[in-house]
Amino acid sequence: MSNVAITIIGVGFIFLMTTLGGAVVFFFKKPIGDKTNSLFLGFASGLMIAASIWSLILPAIEYSADWGTLSFLPASIGIIFGAGFLVLSDKILPKMFKCSARGNLNSLFLAVTLHNIPEGLAVGLAFGNAFIIGESCAFVSALWLAIGIGLQNFPEGSALSLPLKEKYGSRRKAFLFSFLSGVVEPIMAVAGIFLANLLTPAMPYLLAFSAGAMLFAVVHELVPEAKGQHHSYIGSWGFIAGFVIMMILDVALG
After folding, report:
1. Upper half-sphere CA count for residue 247 (Cβ side, 13 Å)
2. C-alpha radius of gyration, the chain, whole number
3. Structural contact between residues 91 and 114, judged by C-beta atoms closer than 8 angstroms
4. Tens digits of pLDDT across the chain (254 residues)
5. 180 burial via Cβ count (<10 Å: 0-12, 13-18, 19+)
6. Are 14 and 117 in contact (CB under 8 A)?
7. Distance between CA atoms of 107 and 128, rounded to whole angstroms?
8. Closest CA to 43 of 246, 248, 180, 249
9. In this structure, is the dihedral angle defined by the CA atoms of residues 41, 170, 33 and 100, taken in order, positive or negative?
10. How do the residues of the chain divide into helix, strand and coil, expressed in percent and rounded to 5?
11. What backbone phi and psi angles, to 5 degrees, belong to 5?
């Protein structure tokens, strides 16, 4: 298999898995009950918190290892700006598109989309560096990274589409938003391939920025709704399950 074919497979896989994860919503044809909804909301919260830590914040700190004892600084700056960006987006975007904050655009969709941007970049940078190195082992390593991120994208896609189904009452709309959140990954992956040398220094800020947006969305939107269903233990156990599953995926798949 050629290096170009390996690259196409890797980039396509991360998008495919997000799409398949979002398609899970079509298996829930009847309205989801309050208990099940609390479970899903808690599960989505756990997934997103774990993904923020292991997929975004810790790699951001690792990228900044040459900062020594201040290696936390780029991550801290990125998290703060990411959360602030989400607040501004919640206030500005509804006015631009003439919809309410809980209408067609919301912070959950925006946070997951922002989270997918550095993931796509990470895959693109891996393949971009592989082209620079020119060795087949580098392409195999990049492919394994894409497979790892892609497998994580499946539960992330469902974690977005299932809560949105309850918010909008439409499986198609929920799937569409999940699909659109994943479109940015192959786009950013292609950009990462061609801009590998330029984007690497900005990665810790990009990763932490996405983490800040995701953390804010979970605390501001998902957790209150999960706890507000009067089934607090169910939502809390859903959170634990989502957190543990994503932690296992992130650690096991590197």
Report:
1. 12
2. 18
3. no
4. 789 999 999 999 999 988 998 898 888 766 666 777 788 778 878 887 887 888 779 888 998 999 999 999 999 999 999 888 878 876 775 555 454 444 444 667 877 787 788 778 878 888 887 888 788 888 887 888 788 778 778 877 887 888 788 777 788 888 998 899 899 999 989 998 988 888 778 888 988 887 887 788 788 877 887 776 565 688 889 899 989 988 887 787 66
5. middle
6. no
7. 31
8. 246
9. positive
10. 90, 0, 10
11. -65, -40
Find all residues with CB under 8 Å of 20, minimum gap 6, and list them: 154, 157
| Residue 95, token pair as written in the block | 């006015």
Instruction: Look at residue 102 and give its three-state secondary structure.
Output: coil
Residue with tokens 């947006």: 213
Residue 15, helix vs strand vs coil: helix
Helices within 134-222 (DSSP H only): 136-168, 171-194, 196-199, 203-217
**In whole angstroms, what is the distance from residue 125 CA to residue 71 CA?**
21
Residue 166 in tokens: 């309850």
Number of neighbours of residue 133 by Cβ within 10 angstroms = 13
The C-alpha atoms of residue 209 and residue 183 are separated, in whole angstroms, by 19
User: How many distinct helices (H) and strands (E) make up the chain?
Assistant: 11, 0
